[in-house]
Write a structure and sequence with these properties.
The model has no long low-confidence stretch (mean pLDDT 92). This protein starts with 6 loop residues before the first helix and ends in a 6-residue tail after the last helix. It has helices at residues 7-22, 30-46, 48-51, 53-122, 135-163, 166-187, 195-202, 204-217, 227-240, 264-270, 277-287, 291-295, 314-343, 350-367. By secondary structure, the protein is mainly alpha-helical.
Length: 373
């Protein structure tokens, strides 16, 4: 279509001409005219149903047709995945269920320990600030939260894989990778050591500082810290220095003699996770809008250049579901060992064997390429 054939553009130009005749616009001011034309075009878009009824009708008919087609396509993609990976998905579900039971066991162990040790727990506030939990109780709750979040994300990955959303699978596997690195880092100094976990718990202050700075830079008014938070901020800076508030400053004790900033990749290497970094980087591509990530979506099938809904990607399912299961297991085992050591409930460790076995069965199925004919 030539620009002159556009009903919407003609309406916008007509409106522009009317404003020039009224003297509201200067014909010689090109910048002002361009802005006014865009405003007039927006007005035409709002009236498009009346101005261009044929075009509006075409869109509505195509939407109805597309609705039927996309439902069939998505159902077909799901059936394709279930034919090949149905057994793997069932094993994934079993591993997830085992992890959820382990999470409940960890929670019960922490709860029983808290009831028995309540007075001493309250005598161990973070940096002596009343209202902030610290020490072993904080470490237990951080690990429990990390594992519970890992269970939730793994449930997402399971559903996304079955329904054919490979980019989302990679993105959420990246999140699991981060949780695994953090879990291992919190326990690197020792199961019962709390120096790193205390700093990690207090690092919410660094996140709050960053958020406040961003809001202020945009002319907003950040929410001020309450009295206890302000005291915690002062004591954190006094105890750990201003570097604590820099990138991953909570992890400084893991790198003796080094001052933050500390790149995530170095924490990853320290805890032995660098061998899985390729999954993390693939997840980065799935999250960010880099040109490589955009062009890697080129498909040229089903009448489209780039996909707009679900698709079959067997290799993403094969590799990333296995990686997700391994990460989920690692987080659970790490949390279980630390909590058992802190609470003294060593029978909890029987869950380690159950979770490992469930993980291995599921991972083996995906690594063997599922039920491929």
């Amino acid at each position: 279509m030539k620009p002159g054939d556009s009903v919407l553009l003609r309406h916008a130009v007509k409106r522009l001409s009317e404003e020039i005749k009224k003297g509201s616009l200067s014909e010689g001011d090109e910048d002002e005219l361009q802005v006014a034309l865009l405003v007039a075009l927006d007005e035409a878009i709002e009236l498009s149903r009346e101005l261009a009824p044929e075009d509006h009708g075409w869109f509505m008919r195509e939407i109805e047709k597309r609705r039927r087609v996309r439902n069939k396509m998505m159902a077909k993609i799901r059936r394709t995945h279930l034919r090949r990976w149905g057994r793997g998905f069932r094993l994934f579900d079993e591993a997830l269920t085992a992890s959820e039971v382990l999470n409940a066991g960890i929670e019960d162990a922490i709860g029983a320990w808290v009831l028995e040790s309540e007075p001493s727990i309250y005598r161990e506030p973070l940096l002596g600030v009343h209202g902030f939990l610290g020490g072993k109780a904080l470490k237990c709750l951080l690990l429990l939260s990390l594992h519970s979040r890992a269970c939730s994300i793994s449930n997402e990955i399971r559903l996304l894989a079955e329904h054919g959303f490979p980019e989302a699978v990679r993105a959420r596997t990246r999140s699991l990778h981060e949780l695994t690195v953090i879990s291992l880092a919190l326990c690197t100094p020792g199961q019962g050591e709390t120096n790193v976990s205390d700093r990690y718990g207090a690092w919410t202050l660094a996140e709050a500082r960053k958020e406040s700075r961003t809001i202020s830079e945009r002319g907003g008014t950040p929410v001020p810290l309450d009295e206890a938070e302000a005291e915690m901020e002062r004591k954190a800076e006094a105890a750990w220095g201003s570097d604590f508030f820099r990138q991953n400053g909570w992890a400084a004790p893991l790198f003796p003699g080094r001052r933050p900033p500390i790149p995530f990749s170095e924490i990853e290497k320290l805890v032995g996770m660098e061998n899985r970094r390729n999954y993390y980087m693939a997840g980065n591509d799935a999250i960010h809008a880099g040109p490589s990530a955009l062009m890697n979506r080129l498909r040229l099938r089903n009448g489209s250049i780039f996909p707009t809904l679900s698709e079959v990607q067997h290799q993403t399912i094969r590799h990333f579901t296995a990686a997700a299961l391994i990460n989920l297991s690692d987080i659970g085992v790490t949390a279980c060992r630390a909590v058992a050591s802190i609470t003294g409930d060593f029978d909890l460790l029987s869950g380690v064997k159950v979770v490992h076995d469930a993980e291995e069965r599921a991972v083996e199925e995906f690594k063997n390429d599922g039920m491929r004919a």
